[in-house]
Amino acid sequence: xxxxHAIASPHALSGRRHGGRARVAAAAMALAxxxxxxxxxxxAAAQEPPANYVRSGPNLTLVVANCESSADTTAAVELxxxxxxxxxxCLSSDGVPEELSELIATFAPDRVMVLGGPDAVPPAVMDExxxxxxxxxxxxxxxxxxxxxxxxxxxxxxxxxxDLPDRVGLDTVVLIVADxxxxxxxxxAREFAxxxxxxxxxxxxxxxxxxxxxxATVSLITDYRxxxxxxxxxxxxxxxxxxxxxxxxxEEIESDVSVERVALATDAPSPAVEVATLNSAAxxxxxxxxxxxxxxxxAAEGSQPPPFLALTKASGIRGIGSTLFTVxxxxxxxxxxxxxxxxxxxxxxxxxxxxxxxxxxxLVAAPDGxxxxxxxxxxxxxxxxxxxxxxxxxxxDTNDNNLxxxxxxxxxxxxxxxxxxxxxxxxxxWRYGDLRDFFWSRDSAYMAYVTExxxxxxxxxxxxxxxxxTDGSTPPVTLADDAxxxxxxxxxxxxxxxxxxxCPADPADESxxxxxxxxxxxxxxxxxxxxxxxxxxxxxxxxxxxxxxxAYEALDPDDCSTELRISSVDGDGEPVSIAENVEFLGWSxxxxxxxxxxxxxxxxxxxxxxxxxxxAHRDGSSKRFIGEVSPSVYGWIFWSHDGTYIxxxxxxxxxxxxxxxxxxxxxxxxxxxxxxxxxxxxxxxAWSDDDRVAYVAQHDDDGDGVPEREALYLHTPGxxxxxxxxxxxxxxPTRVAIWSPTDSHLIYASGSIESLIGWFRDRGRGVNVWGIxxxxxxxxxxxxxxxxxxxxxxxxxxETEAEADAE
Length: 807
Known about the structure:
- The protein is an alpha+beta fold.
- Helix content is 19%, strand content 35%.
- The protein has 14 helices and 47 strands.
- Helix 9 (237-252) links the parallel strand 8 and strand 9.
- The chain is elongated and about 110 Å long.
């Protein structure tokens, strides 16, 4: 690597030369004093030094680069931004522009730095520029940063701009990395870097990255230990290799920093640097400094920081194999919570996160705060809806076969004070109990669970469904043996549970008898035999959101046929028959409509099938066929927040029954009006609380019949303004999105189609989560790779508003 060159001022010359001058001057003054009346007469012109020997005004630093190189220009702009009284300007391969010469002559900067070696700044241009600097101020320091590659030059500039590591502080710097031979990525890095203070931009070479990072970049990471490392632009093969090289350096220095990535969301490119604009800006900057003022970009007033999320990443560690982080939607304030979690959840009342770490300690923290120990030993913490109680699990593998088979539930107060053991539970309770309305009633007054114990007399394993007051004021009430818990009603007044049933016509059929119990378990009412898959509890809730109605698949014991029915909770009137031999798929948010489907025999995955979906009013009217709807882990049809609209992804098939594409559509839930095709080729994702639906559209830009990119849009029904493009080019196929509680941001999961289909089952390998602001969609931030799960921090409402919601 070539080292920076410096041409020194007279202050840097040898001490002997300075000492000689000083001694001569001192002797002359002593002689004049001694003689008293002696006057040394010299010509007036000899007493005035040349104009370029002195300068007045504040010290000024000028950083220049050949602006034909976006890499050097960006490094120059960042170096000037982080240097005192500095501005950046442009050279060219042909010489020194007139504007630059005038700038130097007018302000006579006393420190000048040139970025780029002889390829970027030819020797003749360097000589011309040096002469212009010396002509303005003879003693100015002229320094050339000319690393062997762009990566080395940018690393050298970063060190000067950041100052020494012990001065700027370790774990403080934001390091932005770009492909130094990709102008679009470099421009993206420069624009994004403008939002930070302690930041540096450096590069990698796509031609040599297979051999690793440059030594200069490695030492930059090692010496400064950045708080964040962010790659600019969407990743290609070289970019992925560069990320892997950075991760290797981080592992070597034992840093837990996650490598991030940011890319432009819209099709508006980052602005390239123009010579005239940069040189004009340098003059404006120097004029302001000379007047004793410096105009800096004003900070945004009243802007709210992005919301927090908890995200988990596949770690490869034996156990749960999932590392837990909290992070803001722009990638900032990332905190590693545990390398291998044993359960976690947000809490609605205070917005804090509770989790069990890899040592099976239960911890609690605000997303930007340090962890506090809640329970010394336990896993899979669940907080009651009112936040006053904490349930943790003492699980074990008693058979030593790498399978959990012992599940003891322990109840604590929220502060970790032990209350009591609830005893051994069945695996079903442990597996599904953290779903809303499964274990705790929504008012937190009661708990519902299924015990698992052995009869001491017979040795038989017995499972019992029970209801127990959370405060322990009365003993548990046993509802039935060998039962399963279905769910509490939203108003906390009733519990649905089911007892075993065998359909004679098909003993292998998953049939149960559905029961309705009062909250305290004192009263029960049989609904009747039903068909019910235990795993459907992840997606399907039989209760209407208002808690007044039940939807269930009534079973005919004679032939095991089913009929979808709607019953009122109070038992008034006869159940409403909706359709025969269909599956219930969910309620609308306003409790007026329901979705049901006929399962096809043409699977798109090996564990979940598309549905021939229908929508009907709960009174049995307004039945209509929607289409063959593609499944997702969040269901089939997506409902708007108020239940007025639905959106879905329709599967398109050819005459031979082969899938030829997907179309994203939306329509009114009541069937009035026209169907809106959001995308002829694309997928519907999710609705916001303010009734905007996110969807993906595929684009065939070159017209060859094969889509080259997917884009992300927002559609607002009835809006005259048209749809909003959030992301012009998604990093990979995208089929999952989740809105933040305030609708200000959206996260989406992107990966290969195979990874997305198997995401829920395969724990996310190959799927990455990105975040974007929906109001001003400029940047999309990759928040985590190999995601296994994630959720937004709940919105913390004022106490009066929360009480009103509860009522």
